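Morning. Coffee machine broken again, so started the prediction first thing and wrote up yesterday's gels while waiting. Chain of 301 residues, entered below exactly as on the submission form.
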Amino acid sequence: MTALDERLGSLSSRVSDRLQESTTLTGQTLADLRERLAAIDAAQKTITDLSSQVVDLQNVLSNKQARGAFGEIQLQDIVQSALPAAHYEFQATLGDGKRVDCLLKLPNPPGSIAVDAKFPLEAYRALREAREDAALVIAKRDFTIAIRNHTRAIAEKYIVPGETAESALMFLPSEAVYAELHANFPGLVEEAGKLRVWIVSPTTLMATLTTIRAVLKDVRMREQAHILQAKIGDLIKDVSRLDERVGALQRHYDQGSEDIRKIRISTEKIVKHGDEIAELELEAPAETAVIERTPSLLTDS
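Came back before lunch.
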C-alpha cells in the first residue's frame, strides 16, 4: 500500500511539473503571438496610410488644375535647391502680360529663360493602357498632339525677343513620361528643338540648373575681375614693403653684429690692460723692499 502511494505521489508530481512546463510554454507562445499580431497591425496601418496617400496622389493627378499645381511645386523645389534666390522668379509676368511658371534670371547672353511645367498625364495613361492596335494608334496620336501643342504654346508665349532668351524649357514632372517621349517619339523632341523649346525632366532639369549655376559663378568672377586685380596689386605692394622692412631689419642686425664685434674687441683690450696692470702690482713689493734696505746700508757705512 505504501509503495502504491509513493508511486501515485511520484506520478502526481511529474504530471504537475509537466502541466507547469506546458503552462509556461503556452504563456510564452501567446506573448510571441501578441507581439507578432501587434507588428502585423502596425504594418497594416502603414499599408493603409500608404494606400490612402496613393489614392490622394491619384486624385491630385486626375484633376487637371491640381496636376498643374503638383508640377509647379516640384519645379519650385528643384529650382530653389539649385540656384540662388536672386536668379529666379516664380509666376513671373512678362512684358506682354503673360505669366510663366518660372523665369530663370540670367545675364546676357543668353538672357532670362522661361520654364513652363506641363503634365500630359491623360495622353500618357491612354498610351500605357492601350492593348489593341487601333487604341494604340489613337493614343499615340493624342500623345503627339498634346506634346506638340505644349511646345508650340511655350514657343509662342515665352520666347519674347529682347526680353527673354531665344529658347525656353518645358518641364515634364515625370521621368516616365520623359523616357516614353525620348524612346518612342524622337520626332517630337526634334520638333521642339527646332522651336527652341528644350524638354527636361526632374533629373535633366537639375543637371541643367547645375550647369547654369557654374556659369553664374564664372560671370560673377569676371564681373569682379577688376576688384581681384586691384587686390592683387595691393598685395604686391604690401609684399614689396615687407621686403624693404626686412632689408632694413637685416641692415640693423648686421650693424648690431658689427657693434657687438667692436665692443668685444674693446673688452678684450681692457681685460689685457687689466692683466698687465695686475702683473705690475705683483712686482711692486719686491722693488719697495730694495729701496727700504738701501738707507740702512748707507747708515752703516
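Residues 225-300 form the longest helix (76 residues). Going to sketch it on the whiteboard this afternoon.
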